[in-house]
Amino acid sequence: MSEKQKGARRHNKGLRLWTHARALAALPYVTPIVRSVREHRLEALHYQRQAKLLADRPGRPDRAALIAHQDALHDAQRAQARFDEALKELQSLGIVCLNPVKGQALLPFVHRKRLAWFLFDLFEKEPLHFWRYQDEPEDVRRPVGVSEEDTSGTHPVV
């Protein structure tokens, strides 16, 4: 195999691009993963905060406080491991987690030869209702629509 072919293969493995139709079809699979990412992140944050509160108590800790602190640290590590596992599964699909606590993720696609992102929001009635270009600020949200000429659903209307 030539170096040119190897480079082309590496390039193709880079960013997995989605169409709107494929993203909609994947929602029943993606939604529970994003929900798991969110829940595990919240759980890890809870136990980390609990461990910090126990560690920051004034005075010398007694045996019960030391055990509670160690338990909180252990629970935080387990929750973090579950979060990392769920996040890895999301990333294996080519989806980027934008904000795990808010349940937001990004699915890459190309629009007018520019990288763009479908914005997945766990708490929206329509989770893939918005999109934005890569180089736009995070608060930009363009409504998704499908042009009449394109039956494949790959090009949102701007």
3D architecture notes:
- The chain has 158 residues and is of the alpha+beta class.
- 48% of the residues lie in helices and 16% in strands.
- The protein is built from three helices and five strands; from the N terminus they run H-H-H-E-E-E-E-E.
- It has a five-stranded antiparallel sheet.
- Helix 2 runs antiparallel to helix 3 (63-92).
- The chain starts with a helix and ends in a 15-residue tail after the last strand.
Number of strands: 5
On the 0-100 scale, what is the average pLDDT? 86
Broad structural category:
alpha+beta
| Major sheet | 5 strands, antiparallel
The termini sit apart by: 42 Å
- Side-by-side strand order of the widest sheet: 1-2-3-4-5
Extract low-pLDDT stretches.
4-12, 146-158
Question: Into how many domains do the coordinates divide?
Answer: 1
Tally of separate helices: 3
> What's the helical proportion of residues?
40-55%
Give helix and strand order, one letter per element, not per position. Answer: HHHEEEEE
Radius of gyration from CA coordinates:
21 Å
